[in-house]
């Protein structure tokens, strides 16, 4: 007789575990989608990272990138202090002081007006180091790069999504231009 009770206890435990698993699954689905009904359209979840690629209105592929912006008119009215504030986003990977150490990315002292792969103590990706003697970091080149580093130089190591607002890029570039012994003249 006691063997039958033990089998009933085991069957009851398995049955209870199944009910708990089912309720937990339904609860998790309800919390994630906001509904346990499969017929309701799921709402977009999470948050958008500024500068990251976004989906088109149809919900398909990312929207087409805008044409490059001529940064020179914005450089004429750029705000160095605002650019310094924007550069705080960059301090997790870059340093900005003269003779400063490299971080995940290279030190940014003396960047503006210098050749690509300007910091000889940093190990750049081949995508950037191949451009060392071919290009310089002018205002427009920096703007195009900062709008989308991976798009401007495919294969570079920088994982930053970019600075989407041209005014913010101009301010940041104006600040970076001060980080040298010989800043380039800003357009009038």
Architecture overview:
- This protein is mainly α and 188 residues long.
- The chain has 2 domains: 1-40; 72-177, Orthogonal Bundle (Cytochrome Bc1 Complex, Chain D, domain 2).
- The protein is built from 7 helices and no strands.
- Helix 3 (80-86) packs across helix 7 (166-177).
- It is elongated, with a radius of gyration of 27 Å.
Secondary structure layout:
Blueprint: H1 2-33, H2 72-75, H3 80-86, H4 126-129, H5 139-147, H6 149-152, H7 166-177
Keywords for this structure?
188 residues; mainly alpha; Cytochrome Bc1 Complex, Chain D, domain 2; 7 helices; 0% strand
What's a concise summary of this model?
The protein is mainly α. The chain is built from 7 helices and no strands.
């Amino acid at each position: 007789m006691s063997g039958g009770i033990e089998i009933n206890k085991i069957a009851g435990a398995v049955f209870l575990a199944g009910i708990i698993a089912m309720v937990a699954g339904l609860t998790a689905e309800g919390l994630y989608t906001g509904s346990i009904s499969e017929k309701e359209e799921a709402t977009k979840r999470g948050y958008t990272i500024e500068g990251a690629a976004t989906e088109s209105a149809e919900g398909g592929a990312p929207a087409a990138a805008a044409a490059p912006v001529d940064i020179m008119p914005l450089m004429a009215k750029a705000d160095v202090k605002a650019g310094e504030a924007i550069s705080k986003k960059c301090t997790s990977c870059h340093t900005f002081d003269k003779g400063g150490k490299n971080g995940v990315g290279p030190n940014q002292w003396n960047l503006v007006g210098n050749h690509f792969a300007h910091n000889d103590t940093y190990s750049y990706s081949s995508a950037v180091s191949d451009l060392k003697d071919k290009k310089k970091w002018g205002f427009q080149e920096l703007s195009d790069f900062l709008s989308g580093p991976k798009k401007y130089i495919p294969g570079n190591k920088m994982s930053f999504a970019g600075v989407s607002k041209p005014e913010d890029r101009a301010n940041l570039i104006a600040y970076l231009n001060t980080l040298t012994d010989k800043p380039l003249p800003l357009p009038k």
